[in-house]
Protein 1
Amino acid sequence: MRPRLPETSAVLAVRRGVREWVAARGGRLAVVVGLSGGADSLALVAAAVVEAGDVTAVVVDHRLQDGSGEVAARAAEQALALGCVAAQVLPVEVGREGGTEAAARAARYAALESVRAGRPVLLGHTLDDQAETVLLGLARGSGGRSIHGMTAWNPPWGRPLLGVRRAETVQMCADLGVEPWDDPHNLDPAYTRVRVRTEVLPLLEDVLGGGVAQALARTADQLRADGEVLDALTADLLRAASAGASGPGDSDRPALSVEILATAAPALRRRTIRAWLAEQGVSGLLNAHLQAIDELVSNWRGQGGVAVAGGGRDHRLVVTREHGTLTVRVQPRNDAT
């Protein structure tokens, strides 16, 4: 029998978020919830038990702090008390690549993926997390996609609480008599996201008169919707430019028709070039590289190719213009562009 929850405003807000997410996926279904023991994920567990199907809580123990095993075990016990059909603790090894935050995130997602058994995994990201993500993306200045924020459904990851404030999850735990764990890392100013949360956003709210977090979240929603349209147009242009190319590039690497690319709007053309290169394993494409490649189409003066990331120790990848096409050539490291 599913537990009854008090009908406070905070509980109803969290339940509504989960109910709408579940309804959009076709109705009640078994889910996994990634549980940290914090207020956001505990509130999500409690709401999912009522609004979804069978709920399994998975606590990933990153083992980055003393006593993390005890914290994880307590969170699993709380999940069972809230009505989960199962709760398990998964200890992981956190590497160093990309810094502690990125490495912990990679380890956490890999652990959740390993046990989900085809079920969606619900994560407790809130509207406040969304606002922080948008601000951090804006600071990177790497284009519209970097401020799309998080999406409510990016299979297998579900985020039902993106319209719920962090204060509501905290209040829900209080309403349920559940004591969440306060991760000391969430107050450590050594982490950029913590400073955004504790310093930047409060300052913006004060200076701009409130509503900043909601406005940032709305901006992410709008840009993500625009991005979906642009992605569809990009796919159409990529297919047309690939089909219109006179021949393949180096080996099996596809080429793009310069004539077809040149007729497209510059922003759409650059998105298409980026997508084309991503399909060929080109990573870490800088804006300067993209602009230089775009000039092979829009401002052709006989200039040489543009070296991009994705090669190996003995060779590199170079985007060149040849016989009316853009192509990617593999060149030895000692060749000049």
Protein 2
Amino acid sequence: MNQQVIDVTPAQSVVGRYRWTICALLFFATTINYLDRQVLSLLAPVLTEEFKWSNTDYANITATFQFVYAISMLFAGRVIDRMGTKRAYVLAIVVWSLGAIGHAYAISIGEAVNTVFTSIGLAVVPVSVAGFMIGRAVLAIGEAGNFPAAIKATAEYFPKRERSFATGIFNSGANVGAILAPLTVPLIAKHWGWQSAFIVIGGIGFLWMGLWIWLYDAPERQPRLKAAELAYINSDAGVVAAPTGTPVKGSWFKLLGYRQTWAFAFGKFMTDGVWWFFLFWLPKYMSAQYGMSATDMIIPLAVLYSMTMVGSIGGGWLPTWFLNRGADIYHGRMKAMLIIALCPLVVLLAQPLGYLGFWVPVILIGIGASAHQAWSANLFTTVSDMFPKHSVGSVVGIGGMAGGLGGVLLTKLGGALFDHYGALGQLQTGYMIMFSICAVAYLVAWTVMKMLVPQHREIKGL
């Protein structure tokens, strides 16, 4: 039996369950993260009418978030490894909550920015566009800290065999946020104005911050953690718990010298854009293909995102099934990821069978999106499987930047294809090409990752 397979027969009541309280905190943080991220898109029709935005204006605002988020992911991981999980998470949520609330004051911010730019002779953009671009940039900087910090906290509080399941649980917060946003934001805006939507949703982060400060501390300093549970957390063979805030010894260039870093980064580059494509383009697809209004899409989108929540948790559990049958950590994880990578192939049928009605592509794309969340839960966990805990944030940041850039490229490709084939009256062909890319991306990613890291090789020299 491989020595990485851990005996988990002691009853949970004996071991303790406090680590799941930490998992719950990470779940709610991720939910808030996606709530804050979606307010703008849900209010876009109202804001476009009020400020007379063109499609280019709106594209510039949204592109600001994507680009700044991708770059910030690289530095966020490094900052988290240096500051420690507790303080870094507080900093991240303060920044992104202030960024979210700042959208409500976009006009004042835009006027100030344009005044400065005009005084030094630089060209300016419309006041509202400038203000919202600043708000999106600040939001992106803060939100870039969520996933590196959450993955690091999971590495600190869970043994390897439980990490993908815990990651699947907190990662499902993204899906819950995607469901809650359309149910809350329009109502707040309708009764109290669009500014109130940004302020109310943005302020939720500060409530979470209070709970985080109260309930979280490094495991070795956590008074609520039983000795038995701490021993269980550190029960992986060869694990030596590093104190929170341990200085990062390896530079980015040193981390890039490991195949494991490139395997994770390539997996993110190939697949993150698929999630963003589904998130941003599915409403446009349903409108173009089936003539559906925003109101018509509420139930189909709620069903789709509910499916992804199941995929996130179920995919996080899947490696445990293999571990309980004797597989080691690496092979159990890779077997699970191969099965998950096969599931998005059903998206190839979304366009050919779309004539049967909109529920067919909704369900098929829902399966693909669910597989993405399952894949993501396991992909994130490969970092903590192979790297020391004090380097996890930095590696996740490198991969996060790769994923963000991959998302920008896929979004640009989709826009170019839809413009080209739309002008030819063959928009369906554009969607068929994009669905095909989304369907096979995971198998390509898995194959390259397996080639780069054919066997488990834990990094110990950092």
Protein 3
Amino acid sequence: MVEVLVLGALAVAAATLSGTLTGRPAAAPFREAARLLTLQRRRTVRADVLLTRIGVVSLPMAAALAALVVPFGGRVALSTSVGVVWFNAMEVVAWASVWLVGWGVNSAYALVGGYRFVAQGLAYELPHMFALITASLAAHSLDLRVIGGAQHGLWYAVWMPVAFAVYLVSTLAMTFWGPFGHPLGADLAGGAALELSGPDLLVFLAGRYGLLAVSAGVAVPLFLGGGAGPLLPGWSWSLVKTCAVLSLLVWTRHRLPVLRMDRFMTAAWTVLIPATLLQMLVVGIVVV
């Protein structure tokens, strides 16, 4: 379970880095967490409290369960031959989490935010799955450890850059982060998380940062050679590469504008899907 704790620590580091990039002190996320813990939960009229709580709690749970299959060097918390499938399944839980939060609070803006995320999910999920399949196809395995070890000094990010780029884009969309933060958009006064307050909001945001950290960790065995590297042990290289990917993802929030949902959906269906299919075809021709 050390791997899960490491990814949890990286999620906290991501929150700290995000605040630092906006000029806030490094301790700001901890102060905000303490403030939210002391706030009273807000409840709207005729809200479905059970569905809301399920949505709030299931988001960090999905991140924690996905972290079980992320290898650091040769170690992994949950040894399974279908780690890619497990990760993708936990990612789909995020769909239900955000939508349940938007639906359960009985608020118009929150509901629109929830449906925005569902629409965003329909746009990014197919390119995301094709990117995962491309790496799995090249390694002839769904095991993240095998995929990382199959790159033999030439990272998949080098000879399948389209799949890697699409994976990063879909990661941002999956975590409704940066240019894909429309489900929590300011035009909806906060969107899906509008009516969350106190500990509920803290747990929800923790799940978001957790998914971001886990997705960065999965990118390492998928496209960056896993723990392979000179001098340092495997787990150290996995950690360094995860930190690099996570820093890039956090940076995008403060440097790229938020995309309109309809434009992203159009781009996903007309650009991302054909591009990943073509990349998968090239990989299939090379390795089969």
Protein 4
Amino acid sequence: MTDHPERAHGSSQAPSTVWTGRATNRIQWLLALTGAGCVALGIELAVVSPWSSGIAPLLMSVIGCLAVGLLILFGTLAFVHVAVKVDGDALEVRCGHAGLPRRRILITHVVGAEYVPKVNPRQWGGWGYRWRPEQGTAVVVRKGEGMALLLGDGRTFTVTVDDAESAVRFIRERMHLAAAAAERARGRG
């Protein structure tokens, strides 16, 4: 679901005050199934296995399968999709079904917004919430289009999202509105 802020020429309709978008990675579901399989194997080992081989090897197998399975399961489900919301004040990024991790960036902290036609997980070291010293921070859930925000402190934040071009236009419009409001406030003071 995406609200597009553009309006037709001559239209009296006011521009939208919120832009929302998302990106989804269906391959992550396969990895989540692998994690669920590891959890199931750990449970089966704990319930069905004979204890004749000793408690220590069995316990290590059960705990290992459960730990790996849960890490894979929750690690992949957190990045099955990303939801981006831009309103008049901030950009908010929420990952997965629980909305975690979450990042909120005030529009007043953004000094530039760029459309990135091809974001590749290999550039960032894989899927997920990534940080690279030479590139900045990113939320990458799939290969494809995204946007990069240049923040006032010199850092960059990149996120993969469908229809990133309209998101960039919307953010730039909000940046200009915020700058104009700040200029009016300075003129009064």
